[in-house]
């Protein structure tokens, strides 16, 4: 199973076929995400429709630092919160995913700001992009080398905010010194990856200086970058293999850790969607209704 990636240029040209393909591919997993938070079936459908229309409207400002799936989930997250707030519900747990994706959609349509803020935003965007890139590269290296314990330790520390004491006991390491060693080597490798992308060190220096002076108005961290860019989320085909019990021990343990202990809501939604594939007709009927509203908007744009 390969992971579907839409043609962004076609989406930005409001191509009917490409947008309909997006809705067929992603509606199930988005609906699974909304379904954990919104119990009313009609409301879930409304949120899904709002998500898709929001995606169409904002596609011109799509930021390639994110995958298209992240872009969709970001909009879906915001639309779900909007729905819950309108009904004065508080069923979302902030610690689970409220900090994720806030601003992905907003950054696509930011208004003009004074030049000092613009410079800060530009610096912040470049820093976020580099952080996401090097973190993703490090995760891919650990995965390729089969270092799943190392990957879980770093994710627990950087993403989960675990303490060294809790971490070494959870993974059966010798002591807290073992955790510190893994973290030290990971940070050293991240520095190497950063310098490979910013050999002069000017961007890193500017980030440090801006953070000290407040001039850059930066608002990001490694933890935020890890969460927002979903650098450690397994590809959908890995999740599918985990359901069929066809993964080897290392990747299987990591997938369970990532979903059950790190409580990744996006991968959980993907898994729920994959489980639902046995009875796809209900989702297919919903997709047909959602597509009707999307087509109306697409046709109105192409007539402009």
What would you say this structure looks like, in words?
By secondary structure, the protein is mainly alpha-helical. The protein has a domain at about 115-230. The chain is about 70% helix and about 0% strand. It has helices at about 10, 15-35, 40-60, 70-85, 95-100, 105, 115-145, 150-160, 165-170, 175-195, 200-215, 220-230, 235-245, 250-260, 265-275, 280-300. Helix 7 crosses helix 10. The longest helix has 30 residues, at about 115-145.
Q: Approximately how much helix is present in the residues?
A: over 70%
Low-pLDDT stretches are: 89-95, 107-118, 210-219
How would a textbook summarize the main sheet?
none
Integer-rounded radius of gyration: 21 Å
Order of helices and strands: HHHHHHHHHHHHHHHH
Q: Strand portion, in percent? A: under 5%
Overall body shape = globular
How would you sum up this structure in a few lines?
The protein is mostly helical.
What is the topology?
Elements: H1 8-12, H2 16-35, H3 41-58, H4 68-86, H5 94-98, H6 104-107, H7 115-144, H8 148-159, H9 164-170, H10 176-197, H11 202-213, H12 222-228, H13 236-243, H14 249-261, H15 265-276, H16 281-302
Q: What are the key terms here?
A:
single chain; about 300 residues; 16 helices; about 0% strand; globular
């Amino acid at each position: 199973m390969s992971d579907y990636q839409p043609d962004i240029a076609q989406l930005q040209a409001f191509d009917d076929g490409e947008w309909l393909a997006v809705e067929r591919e992603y509606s199930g997993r988005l609906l699974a995400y909304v379904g954990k938070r919104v119990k009313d079936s009609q409301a879930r459908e409304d949120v899904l429709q709002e998500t898709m229309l929001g995606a169409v409207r904002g596609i011109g400002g799509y930021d390639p630092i994110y995958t298209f799936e992240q872009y969709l989930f970001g909009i879906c997250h915001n639309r779900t919160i909007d729905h819950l707030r309108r009904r004065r519900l508080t069923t979302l747990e902030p610690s689970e995913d409220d900090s994720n994706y806030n601003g992905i959609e907003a950054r696509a349509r930011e208004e003009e700001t004074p030049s000092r803020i613009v410079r800060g935003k530009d610096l912040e965007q470049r820093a976020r992009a580099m952080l996401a890139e090097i973190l993703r590269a490090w995760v891919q290296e650990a995965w390729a080398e089969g270092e799943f314990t190392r990957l879980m330790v770093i994710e627990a520390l950087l993403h989960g905010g675990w303490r060294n004491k809790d971490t070494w006991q959870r993974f059966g390491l010798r002591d807290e010194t073992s955790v510190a060693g893994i973290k030290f080597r990971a940070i050293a490798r991240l520095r190497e990856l950063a310098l490979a992308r910013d050999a002069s060190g000017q961007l890193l220096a500017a980030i440090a200086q801006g953070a000290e002076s407040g001039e850059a108005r930066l608002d990001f961290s490694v933890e935020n970058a890890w969460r927002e860019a979903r650098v450690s989320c397994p590809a959908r085909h890995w999740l599918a293999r985990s359901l069929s019990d066809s993964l080897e021990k290392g990747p299987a343990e990591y997938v369970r850790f990532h979903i059950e202990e790190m409580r990744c809501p996006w991968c959980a939604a993907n898994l729920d969607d994959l489980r639902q594939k046995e009875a796809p007709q209900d989702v297919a009927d919903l997709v047909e209704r959602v597509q009707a509203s999307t087509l109306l908007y697409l046709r109105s744009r192409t007539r402009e």
